[in-house]
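Sharing a chain and its predicted structure for anyone who wants a worked example. Both blocks are below, sequence first, tokens second.
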Amino acid sequence: MDYANRKPKKQPKRNASKKKPAARGATRRQTESRQVPWLVIVIAIALIAAFTYGLVSINGSSNGSAQTPVVQPPPKDLLPEKPQERWQYIEELESKEVEVDVPERELGPPKLMQCGSFRQQADAERLRAQIAMVGLESQVRATTGSNGLWYRVILGPYQTKRDAERDRHKLQRAQIYGCAIWNWNLD
């Protein structure tokens, strides 16, 4: 059921002339005939008085009439001596020497990063100039492939891939994208 679009129901109009004049008189007679429950009132007053008397008697008893017993500590002869704490690990750590076995990294072939390959040498030189503005040195190498002469812009050689990645991130910050890292020989 769609509560948002429903139409409110029409309620029938009440007719003011249908009020009964006798109803007003009947309520007056009912209140006159009711008796006050005196028994309930007397019991409530007795309970309140008993509760008040209990609170007053509890309050008065804590003034010092009941004393708490004082506990005496046992004589010192019965207790053993407190042992001295001795921390051994501090002395052991000062004299220990930690040996860590770190395997040596195997250096693979040198890494070269190619940032572009162009048909025109002028395009390759333009990219080389942009790379030089970042502060890196690049080379333009002409290579002949199955589909003609290409001019490649390369950086490197790098000993590790991490070094090549560092330079690639510098180029990306300068908005030079598309550089790929390869395992190439310098031939």
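Comments welcome. The first strand starts at residue 111 and ends at 118.
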